[in-house]
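Just wondering, does anyone understand what follows?

——
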Amino acid sequence: MLELPAGIHEAANAGLRFHLTAPLALASGSLLVLCGENGAGKSTFLERVLIPSARSTHRILYLAQDMDLQRHTMAATLALLGQEVPVGITSLALAWIQACPSRDTLILDEFEKYLRPEQRETLDRLDFSWVVKVSHLCETRPRTQHRRGFRLLFERTNAGPDVDVRLEQAW
């Protein structure tokens, strides 16, 4: 179960307070999409609230929004595993994700915007118990590889410190 209690979750270093209106309790086989406008706090919530909360109970593979910062780590991991190291950043990231099957939770921050259709299909075929994505687009169509789909909708008014976070079941 991927869980986070309802209530106020502080991201003090970022100056944000996330008001989660309902508890997050996602069974295995779930897709969670964090969606909202630019600056709504999706990545901050992910990095300062959700990942620290899940880290003790889940084996997380996290691809951050700025993939270039992880380029050398991904290449070194593949090389140590004796696998080919692709040149392009998107191919490198996909190879890295595929090379880490011991993880149960895949977290992608704005990654799908880099993918071609065939790469998206490769990503969709990977077997993770939980997949969390950050996107400006809310997932609306059911994905057959995920039994359940959910959205966390982020609303931040007047660029203030308070962010309302609402959970919705998509399918």
